[in-house]
Amino acid sequence: MKNVTDSFVSLGHWPSAGSFGFNTDILATNPINLSVVIGVLIFFGKGVLSDLLDNRKQRILNTIRNSEELRGRAVEQLEKAQARLRKVEMEADQFRVNGYSEIEREKLNLINSTSKTLEQLENYKNETIQFEQQRAINQVRQRIFQQALQGALGTLNSCLNNELHLRTINANIGMFGAMKEITD
């Protein structure tokens, strides 16, 4: 290993009169080399770095601009959606109110029609009862009349004989004759 280091050290002692060689003195060569490299990089790399930074700046600005446009459109769409929502809510409230009033109106109409129908049914029932009562009364009257007539005929037949029967007929004919003369 000592041989390798010695060979580099011996290279560093070459005469520098017009020749090119390695300077092995680290303290003397590194700051100079670094300053030269940095100077070259700044001089030649300034345009490239500036272009890269400008491109990056433009992309960032474009991204911000696009984001602002998207945000503006999103805010606009949100406002439209909120307006539509308010409109739909108002329409829903109106439908709800109209629906409730329509339900109440239909309910009242149904109650009224039902009460009218019940009243008509009550009237029909009363008329039917009166008709049936009248019919029953008439049937009872007819039976009573028939029974009374049969009883009277039975009594007359049992009490009357032919002679009394002829006298009653003659008396009735006489009464009818007298009535006929009065009316003439």
TrEMBL record:
Its main location: membrane. Keywords: ATP synthesis, CF(0), Chloroplast, Coiled coil, Hydrogen ion transport, Ion transport, Membrane, Plastid, Thylakoid, Transmembrane, Transmembrane helix, Transport. The chain crosses the membrane at residues 32-49. It is found in: Membrane; Plastid, Chloroplast thylakoid membrane. Residues 64-98 form a coiled coil. It comes from the Eukaryota. One of its GO terms (cellular component) is chloroplast thylakoid membrane. Pfam families: ATP-synt_B. InterPro entries: ATP_synth_b/b'su_bac/chlpt. It is a single-pass membrane protein. GO terms for molecular function: proton-transporting ATP synthase activity, rotational mechanism. HAMAP family: ATP_synth_b_bprime. Belongs to the ATPase B chain family. In plastids the F-type ATPase is also known as CF(1)CF(0). F-type ATPases have 2 components, F(1) - the catalytic core - and F(0) - the membrane proton channel. F(1) has five subunits: alpha(3), beta(3), gamma(1), delta(1), epsilon(1). F(0) has four main subunits: a(1), b(1), b'(1) and c(10-14). The alpha and beta chains form an alternating ring which encloses part of the gamma chain. F(1) is attached to F(0) by a central stalk formed by the gamma and epsilon chains, while a peripheral stalk is formed by the delta, b and b' chains. F(1)F(0) ATP synthase produces ATP from ADP in the presence of a proton or sodium gradient. F-type ATPases consist of two structural domains, F(1) containing the extramembraneous catalytic core and F(0) containing the membrane proton channel, linked together by a central stalk and a peripheral stalk. During catalysis, ATP synthesis in the catalytic domain of F(1) is coupled via a rotary mechanism of the central stalk subunits to proton translocation. This is ATP synthase subunit b, chloroplastic.
